[in-house]
Every structure is written in C-alpha cells, then in structure tokens.
C-alpha cells in the first residue's frame, strides 16, 4: 500500500506540474492579448 501511495504521489506531482504549466500559459497568453488590445486602442 505504501509503495502504491509513493508511485501515486509521483504521478500526482507530474500531473499538478502539467496543470500549473497549462494555467500559467493560458493566463500569460490572455494577459499579453489583453495588453496588446489596450496598446492598439
């Protein structure tokens, strides 16, 4: 059971890293597009 928890924690760590990366990229692209709209207007 402990070994499974350890493997699960590693998978969860990788999954969370991917989710954080996706969220960061999404917020970054929306932020840059918003600033582009402001400068153009």
UniProtKB/TrEMBL annotation:
Query: The organism sits in which domain of life?
Result: Bacteria
List the transmembrane segments.
12-31
UniProt KW keywords: Membrane, Transmembrane, Transmembrane helix
Q: What is this protein called?
A: Uncharacterized protein
